[in-house]
Amino acid sequence: MKNYPDPAFLNGSVRLLLIDGKWVPALSGKVFTTINPTDGAALAQVADGGPEDINLAVAAARRAFESGPWRRMKPFDRQQCLLRLADLVDAHFDELALLDTLDMGAPVASIAGKRRRAVALLRYYAGLATAVHGQTIENSQPGDIFSHTVKEPVGVVGAINAWNGPLGMAIWKTAPALAAGCTIVLKPAEQAPLSPLRFGELCLEAGIPPGVVNVVSGGATAGAALAAHPDVDKIAFTGSTEVGRRIIQASAGNIKRVSLELGGKSPNIVFADADMDLAIPGTAMAVFANSGQICSAGTRLFVQRGIYSEFVGKLCAFAQSLRVGDPMLEDTQLGPLVSQAQLNRVETYLKLGSEQGAELVAGGNRLTSGNLGNGYFVAPTVFAGVRDDMAIATDEIFGPVISVMPFDTLEEAIARGNATPYGLGSGVWTRDINNAHKVSRGLRAGSVWINCYQTMDAAVPFGGYKGSGYGRESGIEHMEEFLHTKSVWTRVT
Ligand code: NAD
């Protein structure tokens, strides 16, 4: 095993809230314990922020926005801060990623890819900090009136995140908001707050002024307070569709801007002419990566009838070959689920799958052998012969569970692929470029992956259709989420 640096946060002291550049306890004095899902043991004590702490953090972010230097800083100087932050994240990445391994079970084997993505996001938005511009627009009004637009930061951003990529998500929301000149109150998920808190510390070290990035750990109460706060201008939310609906309702008070990255039940469609060597591991890891805890996981796997039996057999063999276990070991491919609650949820669906008549061909059980017994491990699971109306085919499970369904025609695959309230990811596997494009046009989803899955890039937008949310993350569109457009009219005399 590689010798990872000691995570600075695990020295036994309570992890505090970052408000206005200072580390402070929750006003209530409450703390909560994060659990290591690998062995169910207590990992760290964390300040349990509540509405009163959110109030303080929002006030600090407001001051930093209105009177602090951040918004007025020259774009070049904001860019330098973000580039320093990118260097710091890069330099400390093993430690940051290790916090996620301990807090939510992400295997250390995934660190290299995550480092590249995190650093790339920060550098990409550092670049965009100096590329913000309005337009001059010809108008047809009488007289000599010149019109142009300017872009302005939306103000104080509340960022509320899920636990399945704690560090990556913290960076994903922070980088474009900062590049746009906004200030932030980040509320990480209560299951995995350690790396976002450490990231907040690095923001200060990078020279980002106090109050610009605030991190308030806590649960749903803190999140709800942030979502409803009258002095927050925008909420950027990643989480379940159910909570997303509550965010929209809470935003109505002061008509906040809202962007929502919500759940999914993504279709992944394999045609009979697909390259099997690509499609088997590709469709399997489209679900099993991060132990199935990815919003865009391709959990509804439609396989054309001509290759259905052969495909299911090979998929099953692939699933059974995966190494599930201690995420600290370099050769582990799947770690545990994040929590006992998530384990309970996944086990409920494993039971429902069999009860409703699906054919279990791989996995289907919790893993308790050896030293896995105290952790939340589930075997990579494949159900075949799944009907579209079964619970495992309609509900987001958020675990390593694939539902395989046969199909006959392209039109049928598109229609069944779209028959879901969600619209986040989707995939198509074929050697026929025409069919690939037909399916890509037909699917109502924010991303379509052709002969690949889950590919992400700082420059390419990601987001949902329908119940998977609105707004985009990554790319120039993500910057726009944090910018207002102001139109200016000037009479020339
Ligand atoms: P969740 O909705 O339960 O919680 C997400 C966050 O919202 C947490 O920080 C939580 O404390 C907070 N929260 C809970 N209730 C709240 C309320 N009433 N008001 C404001 N905040 C509140 O989701 P989860 O179980 O942590 O994460 C899993 C879900 O996230 C899945 O549905 C998954 O698909 C989704 N997700 C989506 C994306 C995406 O990019 N589309 C990425 C990752 C996860």
From TrEMBL:
The active site is at E261. Residues 23-488 form the Aldehyde dehydrogenase domain. PROSITE patterns: ALDEHYDE_DEHYDR_CYS, ALDEHYDE_DEHYDR_GLU. InterPro entries: Ald_DH/histidinol_DH, Ald_DH_C, Ald_DH_CS_CYS, Ald_DH_CS_GLU, Ald_DH_N, Aldehyde_DH_dom. The keyword Nucleus does not apply. Its EC number is 1.2.1.3. It is an enzyme of class 1 (oxidoreductase). GO terms for molecular function: aldehyde dehydrogenase (NAD+) activity. SUPFAM superfamilies: ALDH-like. Keywords: Oxidoreductase. PANTHER family: ALDEHYDE DEHYDROGENASE-RELATED (PTHR11699). Belongs to the aldehyde dehydrogenase family. This is Aldehyde dehydrogenase (NAD+).
